[in-house]
Design a protein that fits this description.
It contains two helices and no strands. It is mainly α. The mean pLDDT is 73.
């Protein structure tokens, strides 16, 4: 591999959409996916909490 190719690839890899805060994406699909994941995690937590409450009430 020529040194020129390596320099070119390194500069491509360092490009970020938002270099100040890479976690904050501008792509709407990413935001929608995070929202779905949040709702699913909350549903699972609520489901576990409900199961624990049912078990505690039986004793």
């Amino acid at each position: 591999m020529a040194p020129e190719d390596k320099k070119h690839r390194d500069s491509e890899e360092k490009e970020w959409e938002n270099p100040v805060n890479p976690a904050m994406t501008t792509d709407e699909r990413d935001k929608e996916q995070l929202l779905r994941q949040y709702k699913e995690a909350k549903r699972r937590k609520d489901n576990l909490t409900t199961e624990e409450t049912k078990t505690d009430n039986r004793n």
